[in-house]
């Protein structure tokens, strides 16, 4: 049963920390977007997209949680060893850390992109590209977790 607790802790960290990064990131983007919309309400749609970008890390965290639970179920939840529990926990760490940090960083970039849209609405695509570059690392964290989970018990 100790293995199960460790594995569940890893799954919870992946979802919880990635979700926290998304919450902070979308909050930063929303604050910046709100300031722009106060001056020009017509820009709401463009700014909403920029605010939503950091929310993907939370989605990746939930995907990681489901993958970890699926792996633990396949291993036999009540039969998991202590070592297997540690393996699941550590397999979830890449997603947890990159989800937290990239969500916050992407929120900052998205907030700056809101300022770009305020001054030059036609340059929104460039602001999105800046924010999407940060997204790459969240995807790599998810990929790392997927690869590590696949290697448990092999």
Explain how this protein is built.
- The structure is a single chain.
- The protein is mainly alpha-helical and 154 residues long.
- Helices cover 86% and strands 0% of the residues.
- The chain has helices at residues 2-39, 44-52, 56-75, 82-119, 124-151.
- The longest helix is centred in the first third of the chain and has 38 residues, at 2-39.
- The protein starts with a helix and ends with a helix.
- The model has no long low-confidence stretch (mean pLDDT 95).
List descriptors.
5 helices, 154 residues, single chain, elongated
Topology of this protein?
Blueprint: H1 2-39, H2 44-52, H3 56-75, H4 82-119, H5 124-151
Helix pairs in contact: 1-2, 1-3, 1-4, 2-4, 3-4, 3-5, 4-5
First and last CA, distance:
21 Å
Strand content: under 5%
Could you name the ranges where pLDDT drops below 50 across 5 or more consecutive residues?
Answer: none
- Tell the overall outline: elongated
Structural category: mainly alpha
User: Roughly what percent helix?
Assistant: over 70%
| Cα Rg | 18 Å
The number of helical segments is 5
Mean pLDDT: 95
List the helices and strands in order.
Answer: HHHHH
For the biggest sheet, the summary is: none
Number of strands: 0
């Amino acid at each position: 049963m100790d293995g199960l607790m460790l594995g569940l802790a890893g799954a919870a960290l992946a979802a919880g920390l990635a979700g926290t990064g998304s919450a902070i990131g979308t909050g930063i983007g929303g604050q910046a977007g709100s300031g722009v919309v106060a001056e020009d309400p017509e820009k709401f749609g463009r700014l909403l997209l920029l605010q939503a970008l950091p929310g993907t890390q939370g989605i990746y965290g939930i995907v990681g949680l489901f993958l970890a639970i699926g792996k633990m179920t396949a291993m036999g939840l009540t039969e998991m060893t202590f070592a297997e529990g540690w393996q699941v926990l550590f397999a979830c760490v890449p997603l947890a850390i990159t989800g937290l940090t990239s969500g916050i960083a992407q929120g900052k970039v998205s907030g700056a992109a809101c300022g770009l849209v305020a001054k030059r609405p036609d340059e929104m695509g460039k602001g999105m590209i800046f924010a999407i570059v940060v997204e790459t690392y969240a995807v790599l964290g998810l990929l790392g977790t997927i690869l590590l989970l696949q290697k448990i018990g092999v």
